[in-house]
Design goal:
The structure is a homodimer of 385-residue chains. The first copy, chain A, is of the alpha/beta class. Helices cover 44% and strands 15% of the residues of chain A. Chain A has helices at residues 19-24, 35-52, 65-76, 90-101, 119-128, 150-157, 180-183, 209-217, 227-234, 245-261, 263-283, 309-320, 346-363, 371-384, and strands spanning 8-9, 57-62, 82-87, 105-110, 134-138, 140-141, 146-147, 164-168, 187-191, 202-207, 298-302, 322-323, 325-326, 335-339.
Chain lengths: 385, 385
């Protein structure tokens, strides 16, 4: 050990913790069947609507995000019904796995990793292939760093009264300006360990009136993720089962902080960091993995020719204590990913880029020291003045 | 507010807190007159000897560092006795103020701010001006960022059996390799909010046998900072008065961390950060305030011609949440100071330098963006490979 080394997360979830929100849990000796907890839940639900930018109900589950994704499948669709799934990465594929588990007929719209899904293809299928019960997509595909155009898709699906749109916005929330109500994003899934700055363990689902109507009719088996039961209970500040109480306390505190910062400023923060990272990557002669429509939540960068991205990830951790993410699945070893969602500021990025420049040079990718930082500084100056 | 802004201390005390040491206090429901607290005190005293690199007693006081400085005066010197004081900054002047308060005759060896004290002048005075009871100096003058040669001074004072050397090493400990025992540093003063990574509130004094002999004879009034009484009590893990218990808990935890890192590595860490900062300053065409013998604990940088350093301090805080220190006293507005002591790593410095480059450019000091970071990266590569 050659001195001090601080561990710093730059992964697209979990993300750096807001310590003030963590500290709040220390005095939280609370029982969930009390009026004080019910009040906390009701306030937290209200804050979540602000974060989501919606008037729809936002349900809270004690689970990872995948739990709420499963809930969207089991509550909305009945066995044998057809759904349309957009997939261009690991999390798109998760929708397909869930559909398979529930015996649904999933029609797939696929595009290559690193590309956004073609919305016109959804239009064509919806028009030509008869009725679908639901359409599933990611707002941001965290495995590739690409954003999909959920606004266009929402406005399209709005034309089909029997079809709902489900958006996995686990990394999209707090990094992309979403308008669930006017765009027709019927169910929007979120998770705690992303832009919300708290640990993993809570998942969220906003549900529109159009979706509630469908939920009444759906016949898939469900129990823990029963949306209607939760809606009834959470309207009173109750939860159907024992909730992860300290995470709710952290969430409440983090959402208070986010209200202070402002939802739009939080998104703008991620957008500036993402743009600065892309410009830095160009200055360091690195290729971005997203061919277009790059996400604000994270930036995926291709490892330089002949280098394993795993070696870059390892070296960043060992030299600087900086934890970035390798690629997932077939992208493992080929890309590395640097996150911008949640509790990050410009000095965080300057630090990570300077460390990356050293790491790349040591790994054999010659690049000018300081050049990536300078590109990020230029973006800061252009956007913040 | 334009997004996320994290507060980051780059001041030469208080310094960034080691969160693991803070967390330890949360379960510290302890009473100070118990065997478990006595054991904690004894272990902490042992760890402090390691940190100090000494076999001398190291006393712990619940006070700021100035309290232990006062103790060194009141325990060692009697009214009317003569002392020799080296001063080249605000903390040197503090020794003079203390001497005045206790009615001592202080002979001053002074040099201009930004310069190290001339040790040959101490030699001349000690030889020519008869007996002095004690000599006082700083290891590192935090107001100017200059190190004094306490090794040479110690070896000199060792030749005078009736004279002890008192070193204010509040910012010197953990940033400079000190050998109190072989160099003859009789009393060495420390403070908690510096390289020890915990909050303000504890002060330390190591005391040599030579100093203990003097303490027996000294007639200055003292009560709270009575070294002999504390020695007797602390040998048993007791304290004379109610100690700041949670700070002792943090200190114990922080010293365990420092033993893991290694005392030498901690010092090397500060030395590398300091060197990198000086090289960065040169690359940005800034003048270092220390004309020679710059400290590892902090770097003092002169504000560019025509600029008020207070404006740079303010802008760094407002734009980036980075808190650096203005000059003190007559140096206010003329220098700013960036700390390296304690819980800092290279990514911290990269972040601060990138922010400083932007801040300087906005303030009218044109410098190449990224150039300071690059100079620091080069130092990292040279020293860490």
């Amino acid at each position: 050990m050659a001195g001090i080394l601080k561990e710093r997360l730059f992964t697209p979830g979990p993300t750096p913790l807001l310590m003030e929100a963590q500290a709040r849990t220390l005095t939280a000796t609370l029982h969930h069947r009390t009026e004080s907890f019910r009040q906390l839940m009701r306030e937290t639900s209200g804050h979540l609507k602000y974060f989501y930018n919606t008037q729809n109900d936002v349900l809270i589950f004690s689970s990872s995000g995948t739990g709420a994704m499963e809930g969207a499948i089991s509550n909305l669709v009945s066995p044998g019904e057809r759904i349309l799934v957009g997939t261009a990465g690991k999390f798109g594929e998760r929708w397909l796995e869930l559909a398979r588990s529930y015996g649904l007929e999933a029609v797939k719209i696929e595009t290559a990793y690193g590309h956004p899904l073609p919305i016109e293809e959804f239009d064509r299928r919806l028009r030509s292939e008869g009725s679908f019960r639901a359409v599933f997509i990611q707002a941001t595909e965290s495995s590739t760093g690409v954003s999909h155009d959920v606004e266009a898709l929402g406005k399209l699906v709005q034309n089909y009264p029997e079809t709902v749109l489900v958006v996995d916005a686990i990394t999209g929330l707090g990094t992309t300006a979403l308008e669930p109500d006017s765009w027709g994003l019927d169910v929007v899934i979120g998770g705690s360990q992303k832009a919300l700055m708290i640990p993993p363990g809570l998942a969220f689902a906003s549900v529109s009136e159009k979706a509630w109507n469908l939920i009444e009719k759906s016949k898939s088996p469900r129990y823990y993720f029963d949306f209607a039961k939760e809606r009834k209970n959470q309207a009173k500040g109750e939860t159907s089962y024992t909730p992860a109480t300290t995470l709710v306390v952290s969430l409440h505190a983090a959402l208070e902080y986010i209200r202070q910062v402002g939802r739009e400023n939080l998104i703008e923060n991620a957008a500036t960091l993402a743009l600065a990272t892309r410009e830095a990557a160009r200055a360091l002669e690195l290729k971005l993995f997203a061919q277009s429509s790059p996400a604000n939540a994270l930036t995926a960068i291709s490892a330089p020719e002949g280098l394993d991205s795993g070696a870059i990830v390892k070296e960043m951790r060992q030299r600087f204590g900086i934890i970035i993410a390798n690629g997932q699945g077939t992208m493992k070893g080929k890309i590395f990913r640097l996150a911008h969602l949640g509790y990050y500021d410009m000095p965080d990025l300057f630090a990570a880029l300077a460390a990356l420049e050293i790491t790349l040079n040591k790994a054999g990718h010659r690049c000018e020291l300081g050049a990536g930082v300078r590109a990020a500084q230029d973006v800061y100056l252009k956007r913040r003045g």
